[in-house]
Write a structure and sequence with these properties.
CATH class of the largest domain: Mainly Beta
Helix content: 10-25%
Distance between the termini: 21 Å
Radius of gyration: 20 Å
Number of strands: 23
Structural class: mainly beta
CATH topology of the largest domain: Jelly Rolls
Strand content: 35-45%
CATH architecture of the largest domain: Sandwich
Shape: globular
Order of helices and strands: EEHEEEEHEEHEEHEEEEEHEEEEEEEE
Number of domains: 2
Largest sheet: 10 strands, antiparallel
Length: 319
Amino acid sequence: MRPFYLKAPIKDYIWGGERLRTLFGKESDKERLAESWELSCHPDGESVIEGGEFDGMKLSELIRLHPEAVGNKFRSTDSFPVLVKLIDAKNDLSVQVHPDDEYARKYENDNGKTEMWYIIDAAPDSELIYGFREKLTKEEFRRAVEDNTLMDKVNRVPVKQGDVFFIEPGTLHAIGKGILIAEIQQSSNVTYRVYDYGRLGADGKPRELHIEKAIEVTNTESSDPSRPVYGMELDGVVTQLLADCKYFNVNRHRLIKELELCADKSSFAHVLMIGGSGGELTADNYRLELKMGTSVFVPAGTGAFAIKGNCDIIVTTIQ
């Protein structure tokens, strides 16, 4: 099976912007392009194959027919493990938290949500919310929500391009306005909103909050968001390990020459181009053009493949 392009479903949320359209070339008739789900088999938004023998097929359908394309530990009855997004926050996202696997499967019939953020771009003075400045009890957390002092207790973190954040389940968090990120996460769409700035939804009513569930799952210890990321340069390629956990492995590669990679039988590789002027991916004399926003699925068992050109890419695999 050859590598193939994926077309991302687009999400229009009230805080979304225009950069997914103007910078990454995403096409949609939606007013705002808040998120593009670049690698997804989640029923709330599924990637579709573009080109080749499986053109127009949902990725989930291909994987049902060929589970070996995911990796040799994956079965057709398993749920696809990861979801890769581009997120453009023109305005602040709600302050929110995600549950772990045990809680989500018990109450939501979904996976928990461990996630990682790579900051692609950030406006001057941009910041995000990551946990609490000081430890709270559950009752202190509840009172802060009820008396509208929660924002006085959260940990505000200035951000810049290239920063990396790892968000474990139970970590209170929010992406701030002006931030553009690549998010790699468990395949889940469970979010508990705690605070939403009093905004109204499309129906003119305040958006739903999930206070009781959020209080149950939130870790109220003080949080340290620092996560140093080290790069290594070799033969014109700078490689950074962004995340390595039981759900996914994520590397960023900035290249001006050729990069050789391998998709063995243990895992597929997902390639997302987030910067550069362009390039190409080749596997056994088969070529795919890469440009900003290009999303490519390289099936497990493809073996050696190469990327060349002026490219900044994020490569996701599973463990």
